[in-house]
Structure prediction request, 428 residues.
Amino acid sequence: APEVILGLQLLYLVRVLRESPLKLSAPEVSYVATSPASRGAIGLIVIVRRLLVPILLFSLLSCLISMLLAWSTSPDGVGFIGLRSLLLTIPLAALSAVFAWTIALLKLRTQSRIVRLLFWLIPPLIGVAARLVPAVGLWVGTLWVTAVQTPLSGTVVVAVLAVLLTALVLFIWVGNGVHMAVVADDSAMFARLQRLGLFGRLYAGEVIARIQRQHRLARKKRLRLSMPEQGNEFSTLLSRMVLSWVRLLPGTMVRPILRGLMLASAMALTVSVSGWQTPQTWLIVLLTLIYSRPVELIAAFREDVSLPFVRQFLPLNPLVIFASGALLPILFMSIGALTPVLVQVPDYPLAAVLLVSLVVCALGLGQALENVVPRIVFHRYIPYEYTVFVAGILIIGTGVLFRSLMMGIVAAAVVVAVLALLLANSRS
Prediction:
């Protein structure tokens, strides 16, 4: 348990080092940041406002965990054990947060890029120190475990509160040296998001993602790569997709791989446990695909067709727009899905590659048809759930009926061809 608590502390430290926690709203940037008020006092108000509710919720979670751990050994005293854990977790969590924020403010005070990079050595150094001197590095976790097992003395409680008070004084002193112009610059994106309000931040996911991309791109001092000056429609749109990933969110290239790995692992486990002969197995597979839609496949396509101003400059055929934006996500998701599938059917690698690639293409096309209106047959938006359900029944039914993996691949190819035809003959 002490090691787990240290891991949580280091994760939080990495988070605040990655992005400054001292953020101000738009009115605060205009009136508070430019006022002669103490910078440390401003930081203290911000840390209390942002961490009060999370610390209380974390303390309640700690209370429940301690009661669960003590239930088998001391069922009569779990109430007092939970209360002790609750009351002790509040100052310990506050102390850990103040310590992490103090280090983040020290990094914020530094203008040198090299010194800022050196701050990333602090988390691994703390881990090494905890390994070499556990009494110092693991004292927070050890104290929490002790509180679960036995009542703490008043001296220990006073000592913890004294350490917390000292940490707050140090935090205020470090905060007084922070330049508010840097804080205001770092708060630009946070201030824009705050204007959306509580419900806006909960439900306006696409707006928030767009603001984050704009802010991230505006802060870049040098843009890598460039689009080719000459090329056809498809190569131009594909180059734009690659540029968006490299410049804005390089880490998002990993998400399709993880998504494919997760979905394929869940389906492979279901088939291996329940058997491929039972209809319940394939029903679970269909429900997994329906309720775990891989939104990464059509992120670029949905944004292109949903903006009329952008759409008028793009090729008329929606299939070209979809293919250029979804080619790389489909490739990465197929790579991730192939790992558990090849483990499940190692004797048919080529068939596994074909089947996985076609299924991933069908999932992307099914989502794309939600955003356009086909000009043939349907003349209305086709919900993703309907597309996956019908296509899944055709593919699975064909494979099971003929007891042939190759027939399932042929059915998947036919489904992809039909969906592509519908998308090609559609309008935004």
Q: What stands out?
A: The beta strands are 373-374, 426-427. The radius of gyration is 27 Å. Residues 260 and 337 are 4 Å apart (CA to CA).
